[in-house]
Amino acid sequence: MTNAYSENYLRNQIESASREQLLIMFYDGAIRFVTRAENAIRDNNIEQRNYCINKASAIVAELSATLDHEIGGQIASDLEALYDFMHRELIKANIENSLAPLETVKTLLTDLNETWKRAIEINKKASASSFAEDNHYKPLSVAL
């Protein structure tokens, strides 16, 4: 029963999340699965390692698939190359039962996650600032 409640809660979170929130959720999920894969390697749990690495790989593939090269230009191309590298490292970790590639991927995901969080916050502040400076916005006149 608890699992059904957890799944419903997660589904509601995803359905109500903004694009920015979904991006952060993807990174958080990938980091969580890489951490679990590291623990599985330490515990010599091959089945759990394989499962977690496959989940992390699926998230990285989704991040890559959602890149918009027309809008993102060189940044999108650079991110795609980075996601491809992460995918190869995840495969290497799984084949070799090795922590080092997972540590590399986890570091990259964590750095990107923090970068996106800062970029989202900066964008929110800039949007709020430009919204407040807009002389055409008159909330009381609209409400009346």
What keywords describe this structure?
single chain; 6 helices; mainly alpha; 88% helix; 144 residues
What is the straight-line distance between the termini?
Answer: 49 Å
Which percent range fits the helix content? over 70%
What is the percentage of strand-forming residues?
Answer: under 5%
Seen as an oligomer or otherwise, the chain set is single chain
Helix and strand element order: HHHHHH
Main β sheet profile: none
- Give the overall pLDDT as a whole number: 85
- Rg, please? 19 Å
Q: What is the overall number of helices?
A: 6
The tally of beta strands, per DSSP, is 0
Helix/strand-derived category reads mainly alpha
Low-confidence stretches: 137-144
Which descriptor suits the 3D outline?
globular
Describe this structure in words.
With 144 residues, the chain is mostly helical. 88% of the residues lie in helices and 0% in strands. 19% of the residues are buried. Mean pLDDT is 85; it is low at 137-144.
